[in-house]
Amino acid sequence: MAVTSAYIHIPFCRQICFYCDFNKFLIDRQPVDQYLDALEQEIRQANISEPLDSIYIGGGTPTALNEAQVKKMLDIVDRLVPLAEGAEYTVEVNPGEITMEKLAAMKNSGVNRLSIGVQSFETRLLEVIGRGHGRDDAVEAVKLAERAGFDNYSIDLMFGLPGQTMADFQASLDMAVSLNVPHISAYSLKIEEKTMFHNWYKQGRLTPFPEDTEADMYELLLDYGSRNGLYPYEISNLAAAGYESFHNCVYWKNEEYYGFGAGAHGYVDGMRYANIAPLTHYIKALEQGNTVVKEEMNVSSAEKMEEEMFLGLRMYAGVDKSRFKERYGMEYKEVFASTVPDLLENGLIEDDGEKVKLTPRGRLLGNEVFEKFLLEKDDAS
Amino acid sequence: MNNKDRLERQKRIRNFSIIAHIDHGKSTLADRILESTSALTKREMKEQTLDAMDLERERGITIKLNSVQLKHTHTDGEEYIFHLIDTPGHVDFSYEVSRSLAACEGALLIVDAAQGIEAQTLANVYLALDNDLEIIPVINKIDLPSAEPERVKQEIEDVIGLDASEAVHASAKSGIGIEEILSQIVEKVPAPEGDPEKPLQALIFDSLYDTYRGVISYIRVVEGTIRPGQKIKMMATGKEFEVSEVGVFTPKPIACDELTVGDVGFVTAAVKNVGDSRVGDTITDAERPAEMQLEGYKKMNPMVFCGLYPVDANDYNPLRDALERLELNDSSLQYEAETSQALGFGFRAGFLGLLHMEIVQERIEREYGIDLITTAPSVIYNVYLTDETMISIDNPANFPNPQKVDYVEEPFVKATVMVPNDYVGAVMDLCQKKRGEFIDMKYMDANRVNIVYNIPLTEIVYDFFDQLKSSTKGYASFDYEMIGFRQSSLVKMDILLNGETVDALSIIVHRDFAYERGKAITDKLKDLIPRQQFEVPIQASIGQKIIARQTIKAMRKNVLSKCYGGDISRKRKLLDKQKEGKKRMKSVGKVDVPQEAFMSVLKMDNDK
């Protein structure tokens, strides 16, 4: 299988959000330039010869870098990652951190899509989750992106935030619609370990968001989308036709991709891997000419089939049955014979002959469905 | 040793135990005594030597008995032999306490100088007085700022009727008063009486199983002499054995040539099962038997029962092995195989009380690594049928059809609660709510009251301790003893999940309390059982009649959104965890029920 994409991780932030457990470091006094040098080294080692169909630079926050560093980053990609005609090239940007100069540099280097970390258009909620920007910065960011010539962009919106009401979420959706946003990534808050929120949760200062309200919010999102021409091409992503993210679908289509940078994850030659996460260790490994891969997991054929299903079902289009058979030499129904009939009968999935996909009910209960596609260890042999 | 030497030595033996409430400093005092009599150097001592099991240390109570031989040189220049016999610190084991007291001539009564006498202490003092023990009062923790030794002495005199004028003022922690205690033991505790040449009578006050040596019996020799090679007979069971070894604990076990009148030590005789060497039984010489058994032998019957089921059905055999092993060491543990529609194959086990039950459960989980589902404990009911036969029921699921039942009897206990004045109302309220029958109330001093109620044992099992603790801010102390069976208006209540009766959740309740209990249980289950993909009704019923109902709403949303920069393994782990979590639950009529739910019928709490 050919590697089609690359994810590049920039693990720096100007402020640490209370919910975030990604590999990230407060940018003050960090060896950013050394990191970019190391990153260059890692990408060079991969020796990419075939042009890729997508690049995604995420974080952290790539825009935490100053203008010179942003240019340095873009230049590295320019030199070392060949892109195919029409490829998608996305950079994550944060309101309050983007400047016209940074955007112009991106545009110059062939970046053709932005992912803007709006999260909410409510200043009160942005403070609650520890973001560094307010409502006006968020609106300004979207406008700036458009002025810089990016018509293809996405905003992140979060729901299930502490103290968030239906009216709050609706206000954010209203704003997104009035700005004519072509793509929304909508995430419900999850309290992850090693975050501020988790500490507060353990201390009893934060209670989990009520499941029913969270479900109502998700339904509101889908409803808003359908009334405004944004369809949920994936469980947490809505887009106007033609604005779906190619890169995002690489993961769900179970394709292979490079992961570059500290703590990045990749999938190459049937092997999923994770890079060293601590910054200095990552840099040192590259300086000494060592591998930065910390963990490698060979994906067995049974696991590939599991992943094909539990990733693929996240997409509105579902899993292509003939592609499944082509890839694994068996019908998905045979492989998962012990669970598929139940799921069909309970109205969680549907099979239209070509594709198998989640029903609207199944989309809300995705994890319940996905779990069923983990084979028992004995079946998997 | 010739008989003259034996008699001479006998005069210098002192056997005593220590009576104290939890936290009043028994273990610390025992440690100090061990140090002062140079049984152990400080370096050899683990903190609180006598409490050997991990569980005991954690819970701060003694479960298995221990005894130790000490040498003490008195002011008269003579060397005395002390045997300190430890007692378990919990009401479940009061029979063992009574037997270990029967092995002594004296007891130290330790009372906290700030807190005074507690119910448990009182119960054990009475046991000691019943056994004619000389009691030496010790006022401990004398160096606490809140110590009130004079008040506590007065209390000892008023409540127990002991002369406390010579009570030792001590602080086990700071080593104050230890010499004085040792002196009083020599001077006040009588030397053992008995004749080394008479036929052997030795009291078994504990026994435990050792993989290499078989059962080790802890004994006190009352008459005669016991030595290796001797043929012995257990008088209650009639079983005969040949002694392989006798010895004393210093506290290390040390073999010796013989044990004779007044000696406290151990015997091994290739006994395979603790059931053959029962606490309270008398060992005698098989060839020259004593005429009579020592007084006070009782076979202990379990009072509290529960179902023990492996979470993983593959653990059934390991669970049986674990129970077999534990039974070797615990003659009061009983079990038999049982099947539940909801939980599959498991065991019904009987225990002396709740603590005993918890200890066994914990040991199975910890020492044998088996995940258990335990059902709510039940007492034993005598069910009289219309055909004039009687059956004993220890599992509510087996309660017969009401049409066949004439009447039912349940076990009652006499419960003694000792509490400061301010909480009398709270305690009486609680006892009343627990179907208690008021018996007596006495002021022990201006501030402390002793309250006695007869209460059904099942009400004690059902969350009594916790409620007593919370309604008296922890100031109450509590003790109970069995007083027999009485007729009550009892019915079987079933719990239905999604329309199906879950046998493991059935309970027997008093008719007047059924609605309240039904509501408490359905509410609790609603909180404990996670939302499922469909709505789940929870119902409590008596016969065909539904008396309480709750509903678990269907799950609305469970789907994770973020893809962490392509970290697929993280998604996989999350799904794996979710799947494993469900495996740890029991699927009952399509409903995934977590382990805790099966115990929930026990707890009435409103902690949220």
UniProtKB/TrEMBL annotation, chain A:
The Radical SAM core domain, residue ranges: 1-231
This protein's UniProt keywords: 4Fe-4S, Chaperone, Cytoplasm, Heme, Iron, Iron-sulfur, Metal-binding, S-adenosyl-L-methionine
Record-level Gene Ontology MF annotations: 4 iron, 4 sulfur cluster binding; coproporphyrinogen oxidase activity; metal ion binding
Principal cellular location given in the protein's record: cytoplasm
Gene Ontology cellular-component annotations: cytoplasm
Gene3D superfamilies in the cross-refs: Aldolase class I
One Gene Ontology biological process: porphyrin-containing compound biosynthetic process
SUPFAM superfamilies, per database record: Radical SAM enzymes (SSF102114)
Source organism, top-level taxon: Bacteria
Intracellular or extracellular location(s): Cytoplasm
Described function: Probably acts as a heme chaperone, transferring heme to an unknown acceptor. Binds one molecule of heme per monomer, possibly covalently. Binds 1 [4Fe-4S] cluster. The cluster is coordinated with 3 cysteines and an exchangeable S-adenosyl-L-methionine.
Family: Belongs to the anaerobic coproporphyrinogen-III oxidase family. HemW subfamily.
Name of the featured protein: Heme chaperone HemW
Organism: Sinobaca qinghaiensis
Native organism taxonomy: Bacteria, Bacillati, Bacillota, Bacilli, Bacillales
TrEMBL record, chain B:
Record-linked PROSITE patterns: G_TR_1 (PS00301), G_TR_2 (PS51722)
Occurrences of domain Tr-type G (ranges): 11-193
Statement: the UniProt record of this protein carries the keyword Disulfide bond: no
InterPro entries in the record: EF-4, EFG_II, EFG_III/V, EFG_V-like, EFTu-like_2, G_TR_CS, LepA_C_sf, LepA_CTD
Membrane topology qualifier: Peripheral membrane protein
EC class: hydrolase
Keywords tagged on the record: Cell membrane, GTP-binding, Hydrolase, Membrane, Nucleotide-binding, Protein biosynthesis
CDD domains named in the record: EF4_II (cd03699), EF4_III (cd16260), LepA (cd01890), lepA_C (cd03709)
Compartment(s): Cell membrane
GO biological process: positive regulation of translation
Domain of life: Bacteria
Residues reported in the UniProt entry to bind GTP: D23, H24, G25, K26, S27, T28, N140, K141, I142, D143
EC number from the UniProt entry: 3.6.5.n1
Recorded GO MF terms: GTP binding; GTPase activity; ribosome binding; translation elongation factor activity
Pfam family, one: EFG_C
Gene Ontology cellular component annotations, sorted alphabetically: plasma membrane
Family: Belongs to the GTP-binding elongation factor family. LepA subfamily. Belongs to the TRAFAC class translation factor GTPase superfamily. Classic translation factor GTPase family. LepA subfamily.
PANTHER family to which the protein is assigned, alphabetical: TRANSLATION FACTOR GUF1 HOMOLOG, CHLOROPLASTIC, TRANSLATION FACTOR GUF1-RELATED
Matching HAMAP family: LepA (MF_00071)
Function comment: Required for accurate and efficient protein synthesis under certain stress conditions. May act as a fidelity factor of the translation reaction, by catalyzing a one-codon backward translocation of tRNAs on improperly translocated ribosomes. Back-translocation proceeds from a post-translocation (POST) complex to a pre-translocation (PRE) complex, thus giving elongation factor G a second chance to translocate the tRNAs correctly. Binds to ribosomes in a GTP-dependent manner.
Protein's recorded name: Elongation factor 4
Organism of derivation: Sinobaca qinghaiensis
Name of the gene: lepA
